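Section handout 9: paired folding examples.
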Amino acid sequence: MGKRVALVLAGCGVFDGSEIHEASAALVHLSRAGAEVKIFAPNIEQRDVVNHLKGSPTEEKRNVLVESARLARGNIQDLAELKAAEFDAVIFPGGFGVAKNLCSWAVDGKNCTVNEHVNSTLQAFHSAKKPIGLCCISPVLAAKVFPGCEVTVGQDKNVDGRFPDAETASAIAELGCKHVCKNVNESHVDKANKIVTTCAFMCKAPLHEIFDGIGTMVQEVLKLA
């Protein structure tokens, strides 16, 4: 019997939802490992809707659960219905929607608030000593909810121009957490808290390297499950 994993999405599209390649990579690696996956998203309005061709906000209103259903091929549930007791692990792909819809990091940085159902999901898995996997910007959720935890969002300096959001590492440290520098094809395991993180698109890297890095995160999550 494969591990039961919940995957939590934040919409559909890098600029206002979940990063599609990251969500897909996580699903491919989970499938290859024989995991049984169920997908969830909060039933809330998006903070904004971005025209991904122009990179600019529009006047549209969209729902995070409805948009996430595109990635889930319609097979998705409201995050409010997720019961940690029914799963062995939870994984959060990245994308700007994490910082806009799952929390307010995009606006408030380290002073952000975390969506109540996201917070309760993280707390439930952590309390049950079940692993939590996060990639790209998603590790800020753990940094906000679990002070003192260890995460990575890649490097803390913009090495060779590949880590343009390196200042995120400093904000994580200011929250009382330890940022561990890792390359895109690596993940970091906080064994004490069972939190596994990888930087994914926080690094300007070829897609296959991001795919491989997410693979290491998924493997480590499943080892801990």
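Moving on to protein 2 of 2.
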Amino acid sequence: MNIIALSKRLYSPRFSGYRSLHGINDALSKTVFSGPIRKAGSFVVPRVLFVSRNLSTNVSSSKQPAFLRWYLRKLESHPFMTKSVTTSLIYMAADLTSQMITMQPSGSYDLIRTARMASFGLIFLGPSQHLWFSYLSKILPKRDVLTTVKKIMMGQALFGPFSNTVFYSYNAVLQGENSEDILARLKRDLLPTLRNGLLYWPVCDFVTFRYVPVHLQPLMNSSCAYIWTIYLTYMANQTKADS
């Protein structure tokens, strides 16, 4: 159906008169049509018809699962809290998986341990990831290979050692260890953790920094951390080191 036929169909007793029809026609010409135009009677006839970027975005987003649309809205309206809760849930799932792998046949889940892991993700790692990735995107806004390598090196040199130190110290304090015990644990566990991290995190970080939008980078990082945290929670809950 061409625009003339559409206009004639709109201009019928079901509509509120000629003036409202012109309002519809003007709105269509401003939002849907672009390019050189010509007149046909009283109505605008476009030479080029296109679907606007916003309209195409809305159509594509409407095809997304309802939960994903809800999560992306929360990520936009409450980024800090959404990322913190997401990281907490991932740490909880990772710790339960770690316990399931290492549990003896007659054993049971240590829910207090799981609560420690979840609280670390909620209180520290989720917020710190939000701030860290936002900071990196400001000082290194490009996404080329060289910039991505710089971000990876900064993560391995700064964020990784800091977050792992806090992780081991936080869990040790909640398990009742004193300062000497914590230092002994760090001497025993921190260096092997950082060394093993060099084998795992650069690949994850490259994909995250190179291809993932900034507002989704903490989610991607936490998703990669699921596998890593299975190992990390196992290390954090080993017996107390000799001080």
